[in-house]
Design brief:
- The complex is a heterodimer of chains A (594) and B (329).
- Chain A is an alpha/beta fold.
- In chain A, strands 3-10-4-13 form a four-stranded mixed β-sheet.
- In chain A, α15 packs across α16 (366-373).
- Chain A has 23 helices and 14 strands.
- Chain A has helices at 2-23, 68-74, 107-120, 134-143, 156-164, 177-180, 184-195, 225-231, 239-251, 253-257, 273-276, 278-284, 291-297, 309-321, 338-345, 366-373, 416-427, 429-437, 486-493, 502-513, 528-533, 536-550, 556-587; strands at 88-96, 122-130, 151-153, 209-213, 219-224, 265-267, 348-354, 380-383, 395-396, 401-408, 444-446, 452-454, 478-479, 516-517.
- Chain A folds into two domains: 68-216 and 404-431, D-Maltodextrin-Binding Protein, domain 2, CATH 3.40.190.10; 219-396 and 519-587, D-Maltodextrin-Binding Protein, domain 2, CATH 3.40.190.
- Chain B has a domain at 94-322: MetI-like (MetI-like fold, Orthogonal Bundle).
- Chain B is mainly alpha-helical and 329 residues long.
- The two termini of chain B are 47 Å apart.
- The chains are: A alpha/beta (594), B mainly alpha (329).
- At the A-B interface, α1, α4, α5, α22 and α23 of A face α2, α7, α12, α14 and α15 of B.
Chain lengths: 594, 329
């Protein structure tokens, strides 16, 4: 008897051990790693292969179906009198950027909830997903079949991988010509360019539609204006001058920071080197790079495999070994706020980021906090230091379509029609404007010409503080200010940030546009090997960049080459091969588009 | 006379037979409460451990969401031909998997080498302490790290080991030394990893040994004292042999886990600079499986991992029994 019992128990134990080890793959991730406060796009989504040249061509405007009976007939009776007879419930993803209010509960989410309920009898629930680890989180949500009904992500390979496993809903059913009149705002805003961008040429399925950027400004390098003044240095316009400036910062650490001199970070490149040194990297890429190279090697959104990137990292490696970079950069992943704190505390001399990053977030913004903590003169301004081989300051812009969030419905979505109506609602120009600028007198004022001046909401209207600037995460089809007219939008951009000198914004916009170019647009159909790697490549790309930057100068080549080999082995090579094959198939031996 | 003697023998034989061959029925009648109690873990294992095992077949299939695992098609290779072992082949051709496999073995072996004796030594030391209050305080403090999650330990380790603003490095540089990259140099990272593992676990791990020590007959110590044995002699000849069965059982269980190990510790502690040494099977499975949506490949890896684990467990148990120890069953 005892033996039987013991055997049973032992058997249970062995098998539980076996089962436990198997479970590992499904454990929840710990949040400590792999996040970055300030990265916009975080995946290998390819913004070099934009389908349409910018600006997007205009389609024939779609007219809304007014006749309620026609709608009822079109939707097979799902919509009666233009709305659902029974209340539908949908869940919607929203990025959380840790801004002024909870991402899923503020004045703006209430506005949407109320609007959707009144207009279509659809109840909306928002699911907050951390912006800086969104790809990881959305992967986890999809894997556990818990994803919201409407999702968006910057990572198309993730969507592709799940589509390959029947985990994504085909949206094409509602994206036909007959249905156009039901979603006029969506069609008029995104156009065929955005909606059919990911359409599969073989079977016509659409697993995701592309959100659109209304502002395609991308990156600039910021520098502490007060430090330049203090040391009598002019704003650098070449890489050499930039290096000299960093050296000057280092040599004058005591003057600049006093007793905190040991905390000085001359140039804050983070764990995501490909983004926070993007200016330097793009300047080292051949300005006359062939279309073929762009297509074949340009799939990584940090341009990791493009020839030229290695030379940029070699420079970073030299700087790292001279003590000009941040020693511990690799320890703080995305989502960590350590660098933000250093920036606000004034320990950082220069860094590269989104053109408007230092202006964002009102009273928690970088420039504003800096002026409060360090002194009224202390601020970051945009400079344009990295020259390419032609002596220009080449840098890439975002393409309006193809580089922003990809909106998709997971297969668990049971209310695709309600979700499509939501997308239409959120693309409506009037709704977008309200979500972006809020109520007049509270979050903005207007001058006689209608130019919008954003201001911080006071404590009585705390719920009106947006979680992200212009609420871009709620207006998922729109990224960037979008007012009634383009002219007004451009005029208002400088006033889009509370507590910020508009001239600094104008300067940053101008720098980001100087010698800037759109990525070349080539599309030769779906690349299967991109689907099969999902988001795996990102971590190898980060590791390759980080190890190469921090290697001893003598080992740089070997470290870079072996890390590159890992990346290629992890699936990069398959993608390159498939793209090369596609290119040869389409254009033969030509290196440029016809 | 002789007859009656014979009868007696048969009688006693039958008695013995009855004793050894209690039928399940009788035993159930007598101990039914125990059987009912046993039902709880059995149901638990059936539902939560055996039930999900159905999905092990994923390793041989082409995975589709929303499809029953039995209805999925068999695995196909790159040429789209059916090849049910494709995912195993894929894993063993994957340089990164082989690297993760190697790292897992190296890190777990180092853990075993350093981490396994640590609680034993700690228990022996505690056992020698005379002042009860001091002993209790030390014990409590040593247990505490066990209750910290690895995410918290990682944040703490940043504050201690970071190159620029870690306390340890600030101290080293103040004393005129060069800052040491504890967390970003591959070799030093391994040292830090093992050290933190020991730090977290030696206190908690010692509980089992302390209990075993408490079970040793005090008369043995008294006898040894009479024979003139000192502290070390007593430790060596009485305490250690007394807890040997416990040590063997725990060692066997640890060996069964040589390819396993948790996910949170390596995942929380690794960073991109040390990935070459820090990527272990569990983190590889997470990155490939969840972030890369390669369920089939990673199930294959998990299955392989489990099989090796069971093999290790059985071998260790077999050897231990051969050497005259009790083993775990």
């Amino acid at each position: 008897m005892k033996k039987v019992l013991a055997l049973l128990l032992a058997l249970c134990m062995i098998l539980s051990l076996a089962a436990c080890t198997k479970d590992d793959g499904e454990s929840t991730p710990t949040p400590a790693q792999n996040n970055d406060t300030t990265t916009p796009a975080q995946s290998n989504n390819n913004d070099t292969t934009t389908k349409t040249p910018d600006p997007t061509p205009t389609d024939i405007p779609v007219v809304e179906i007014e006749d309620k009976d026609e709608i009822k007939e079109l939707t097979n009776g799902q919509l009666v009198d233009g709305k659902f007879p029974e209340t539908k419930h949908i869940t919607v993803e929203v990025y959380d950027r840790n801004g002024g209010t909870p991402a899923n509960d503020n004045m703006y989410t209430d506005f949407i909830k109320k609007g959707m309920l009144e207009k279509y009898n659809v109840e909306v629930e928002f699911i907050a997903v951390d912006r800086w680890s969104e790809v990881e989180q959305i992967n986890n949500l999809l894997a556990s079949e818990d994803a919201p009904d409407i999702c968006y992500s910057y990572s198309f390979p993730t969507i592709q991988s799940y589509a390959d496993k029947d985990g994504i809903l085909d949206m094409s059913e509602y994206l036909t010509d007959e249905y156009k009149g039901l979603f006029p705002n969506l069609w008029n805003w995104l156009g065929t360019a955005g909606i059919n961008y990911r359409k599969n040429p073989q079977d016509g399925t659409i697993i995701a539609i592309e959100g659109k950027r209304n502002a395609t400004e991308r990156i600039v390098t910021f520098v502490r204006k007060d430090w330049l003044d203090k040391l009598g240095i002019a704003a650098p316009t070449t890489t050499q001058q930039f290096e000299d400036m960093l050296v000057a910062f280092k040599n004058n650490a005591e003057t600049l920071l006093g007793s905190d001199a040991g905390k000085l970070i001359c140039y804050a490149v983070t764990e995501d080197v490909g983004w926070t040194a993007a200016g330097l990297i793009e300047s080292k890429i051949d300005p006359n790079i062939s279309d073929k190279d762009q297509y074949v090697y340009g799939f990584d959104d940090r341009r990791f495999t493009i020839p030229g990137t290695k030379e940029a990292v070699r420079i970073l490696n030299k700087w790292y070994n001279q003590g000009l970079l941040w020693n511990d950069f690799a320890l703080y992943g995305s989502g960590d706020t350590t660098l933000d704190d250093y920036l606000k505390a004034g320990y950082v001399g220069a860094y590269t980021q989104n053109y408007d990053l230092v202006f964002r977030n009102g009273e928690e913004g970088i420039n504003y906090t800096l002026s409060q903590l360090v002194g009224p003169d202390a601020k970051f301004v945009a400079i344009d230091p990295f020259e390419d081989s032609n002596g220009n300051h080449t840098k890439y812009l975002y393409s309006a379509v193809g580089s922003d969030r990809k909106i998709f419905f997971p297969a668990t979505n049971k209310e695709p029609l309600a979700c499509m109506l939501y997308l239409d609602f959120i693309s409506d120009a009037a709704n977008v404007e309200y979500l972006q600028i809020g109520d007049e007198g509270i979050t903005h004022t207007k001058d006689a010409n209608g130019v919008v001046y954003i201001q911080a909401a006071d404590d009585d209207h705390a719920s009106a503080r947006p979680n992200s600037s212009y609420n871009i995460d709620l207006t998922m089809t729109t990224n960037g200010l979008r007012l009634a007219s383009d002219e007004l939008t451009i005029k208002s951009m400088a006033y889009g940030y509370a507590n910020v000198d508009p001239e600094d914004v104008v300067n940053a916009i101008n720098v980001s546009l100087n010698d800037a170019k759109y990525p070349t647009s080539i599309d030769l159909g779906t690349i299967d090997s991109e689907a099969s790697v999902g988001d795996t490549l990102t971590s190898y790309q980060r590791a390759a960049f980080d190890k190469s930057v921090a290697a001893p100068v003598a080992d740089f080549d070997s470290v870079w080459d072996s890390a590159m080999a890992d990346y290629l082995a992890a699936g990069g090579q398959d993608i390159i091969d498939e793209r090369l094959e596609k290119w040869t198939e389409a254009y033969g031996n030509a290196t440029m588009l016809p | 006379m002789a007859k009656s003697k014979d009868k007696e023998v048969t009688n006693s034989e039958t008695k013995i037979k009855i004793k050894t061959r209690i039928s399940f029925k009788t035993s159930f009648k007598k101990y039914w409460q125990l059987y009912v109690l046993l039902l709880i873990p059995i149901v638990y294992f059936l539902v939560f451990k055996y039930g999900p095992m159905e999905y092990i077949i994923t390793a041989f299939k082409k995975y589709k969401m929303n499809t029953s695992v039995w209805d999925m098609g068999w695995a196909v290779n790159k040429k789209k031909e059916t090849d049910i072992l494709f995912h195993f082949k894929e894993a063993f051709q994957d340089k990164l998997f082989l690297k993760a496999l190697k790292n897992t073995i190296v890190l777990n072996f180092l853990d075993l080498l350093v981490g396994f004796p640590a609680p034993i030594i700690f228990a022996l030391i505690l056992n020698e302490l005379v002042f009860k209050k001091f002993k209790k305080t030390v014990q409590t403090i040593a247990y505490m790290p066990h209750f910290l999650s690895w995410v918290i330990i990682y944040s703490l380790s940043l504050k201690v080991f970071a190159t620029d603003d870690g306390i340890l490095n600030m101290l080293i540089t103040k004393l005129g030394g060069e800052a040491v990259p504890f967390l970003t140099n591959e070799t030093l990272w391994v040292v830090t990893y093992v050290f933190l593992g020991v730090w977290q676990n030696f206190g908690w791990g010692s509980i089992v040994y302390l209990a075993a020590i408490a079970g040793i007959n005090p008369e043995l110590y008294e006898a040894a004292s009479v024979d003139g044995a000192g502290r070390f002699k007593k430790m060596w000849h009485i305490t250690l042999p007394g807890i040997k069965p416990t040590i063997v059982v725990l060692l066997i269980m640890n060996l069964g886990n040589i390819l396993g190990g948790g996910f949170d510790r390596p995942y929380a502690l690794q960073n991109s600079m040390v990935l070459d040494k820090a990527e272990v099977i569990s983190t590889y499975v997470y990155k490939k499986g969840i972030l890369g949506a390669k369920y089939e490949l990673t199930t294959a890896v998990g299955l392989f991992q489990s099989l090796v684990g069971v093999a290790f467990l059985l071998t260790a148990n077999f050897i231990s029994r051969k050497l005259g120890e009790r083993g775990i069953w």
